[in-house]
Description:
It contains 12 helices and no strands. The protein has 301 residues and is an all-alpha fold. The protein has one domain. The radius of gyration is 19 Å and the shape is globular.
Amino acid sequence: MSSATYARPADERVDWVFSIPFFIVHLLPLLAIFTGVRWVDVALCIGLYYARMFFISAGFHRYFAHRSYKLSRFMQFLMAFGGGTAAQKGALWWASYHRHHHRYSDQEQDVHSPKKGFWWSHCGWFLASKFEVTHPELIPDFWKFPELRFLNRYHLVPPIALGAVVWLFGGWSALLIGFFLSTVILWHGTFTINSLSHVYGHRRYVTTDTSRNSFLLALITCGEGWHNNHHYYQASMRNGFFWWEIDFSYYMVKGLSFLGLARDLKQPRPELLYRNRVKDGHWDIGMLGPLVTPPFRVVED
């Protein structure tokens, strides 16, 4: 199934009316031509980008989707709220679809496989009203918490709250550049893991999908670019398995563990780092390109 031949079902289409707010947010930073742009606005844009990327990477992804470490209920709420400020819906919605992605990675059921087209995997699926609903059966372990269900249902509360704080303390230019522009860049930075990390980069481990590692994507996503590592051992809190693989989310959560705010950070055992490598001659579905559907699944060791 290639992107050129994939026939998308009628309900897998961008809902243009549903997507109007998404496109408006892209245009709002242009209003800065009337307010001007200060260096503090640029600094705020960069700061809010990486702060919220951390909450998406370490919170929505590694904690809620994969349970790769443990938090107290209060810290769990903070992770959900912080990730919510990125305007990528709620933690339960985000993590449930990500679990579905791992279950069917690069197969026909995969919601955002690049095999269905670059733009669909990048943001098209996110703009389809079909995928607006959260599936509690995919995330029953966290669905039991009412505060998480609240943030998931009212997922606009965190970004609106953050935007209001930015405007109150920084004014209009801070809101347009510091908040809205960083939100747009954050969206597309996050989306590159769906659209690019299964297409560009190198493969260290044999997996049943086309996941790849990318140093550049790791830099802009706080370590999510080590995507082949992640698909090889999904339970690991550390995506950058080796010291030279920069992984800001791991460093931050490791720091939280020193403070007693996070615990039980999972990592692959040392011997697993040198197994199932592509260069050892294992048959690798990823090397055969995106036209092949994996006939089997790898069971995590």
